[in-house]
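Appendix B, Record 12. Input sequence as logged:
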Amino acid sequence: MISVRPETPADHAAIRAINEAAFEQPDEADLVDRLRENGDVVASLIAEEEEEAIGHILFSRLTMSGSGETPSLAALAPMAVVPDWQGKKAGTLLVAAGLGECRARGVEAVIVLGHADYYPRFGFSASLAAGLDAPFSGESFMALELEPGALARAQGKLIYPAAFGV
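Logged structural output:
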């Protein structure tokens, strides 16, 4: 049975291995390390099966450049599941648990740049994100309001943590 829990420092090497295996290169693992080092992590969860680390998800803080009231925002990136466990619900459990953790921490909306066929099942919408002033656009750039109407208050340019390089 797959379980999901918050990461601990003892998980860092396993999280790096999960991201490198899932993405077949180190960029996402490096992103996780930079976000962690810069203090930009809102939530970081790990999926396990019989104490074997099989998946990871990270949410980081997003800000806006406007001077008005803005909602509390987070970026979902990356989400990774080792290849042998892909398609076996680990990713679904990670996203659901991560969104719950974001809600518990007062995050009002989550933004993702991801697979347009995958994230809508959780309520993410490209049309909701289309109104944001952001460095991304298109059907893979999606938003989910955890607090209804939160993005209606979003004024200004969306600013990703420096670790993203955008």
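The mean pLDDT is 95.
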